[in-house]
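Sample entry as discussed:
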Amino acid sequence: MQKFQLSEYLNISGIGSASGIVFTNQSLYVISDNAGFLYQYDLEYDKLIKHQLIENPSENIAKISKPDLESITLKENELHLFGSGSTQNRNKNIVFNIQNQEIQENDFSEIYQNIKNTIPISDEELNIEGALFYKEKLYLFQRGNGAKAKNGIITISNDIHFQPIQLPKIKHVETAFTDAILVHDKIYFLASAEDTLSTYDDGEVLGSIIGCINVETFEIEFTIQISNSHKFEGLTLFKNSEYHLEFLLCEDNDTEQLETKIYKLTISKK
C-alpha cells in the first residue's frame, strides 16, 4: 500500500465551509457551500480576493436558500462550479473566466433531472460533490450517502451514463465521494463516511479516504484511509514529482466560522 503523510499547510481567514479547491497560477481558488463568492487566495502575496458569483451574496447563506456549490474544476482558462442538485435552488452551473473574470451562469435543472431519471434516484438523493472534464466529456461524482446509497460516476456527452462505484466502509458506514480530480489518465478522489442517510442534514463524521480509479475502466486501483475524524471535501494537485504526488485538501467544518484550514497530503507513487 502507498505510504502517505497528512499535515496542516495553511490557515485562511475569511472562508468558511470550504467545499472545493483548485490550485493554478500560484493561487488557490476555493468555493464554500455556504457562500455566494469564489475565493482566490494568492499564495505569493498572502492575499485573499473575493469574486461575487450571485446577486446579494453573503458569507453564510441560510441552508434553505444557499446554492450549495460543492464542485469546482479547471478547464483551460475557466473554472466550472456546480451546485449539488439536492434541492431546486442548487442546480446552478457557474463558469468563471480566470483571465477576464467574466461569469456565466447556466441552469442545470434539466440535466440534473435527466441524471435522476438515469440512475434512478429521488429528487432529494441527488448530491453532486465532484466534477472533471476528460476527452470532451463531463464527469460528475454522485455522493451516495442517501437511503439508496447510489454512489457513482456520471458521464455526460451526447447521453448520460451512470457507473456505480462501491467504496470501502469506515466503521459501519460506506464512504461516498466528496471530490475528484484527473491526474493524467487516473481519477484521484476523496470520499468520507458520515453517519446519516440524508443528503440535506449533516451527521457524525467517521473519517475520509483517498483513492485512485482508472478513468477508462472505472476500476478502483487503491484506497487509503487518511483520517478518522475529518470530512475532506476538496482536492487539488499541488506537485507531481518522480516519487510523490502532493495534494492540497480543504475541509467542510459544517459551522459558520469563517476560517479554513488547508491540508497537504503526500502519497508515494511506489
In short: The chain has a mean pLDDT of 93. Helices lie at 109-118. The first helix runs from residue 109 to 118. The first strand starts at residue 4 and ends at 13.
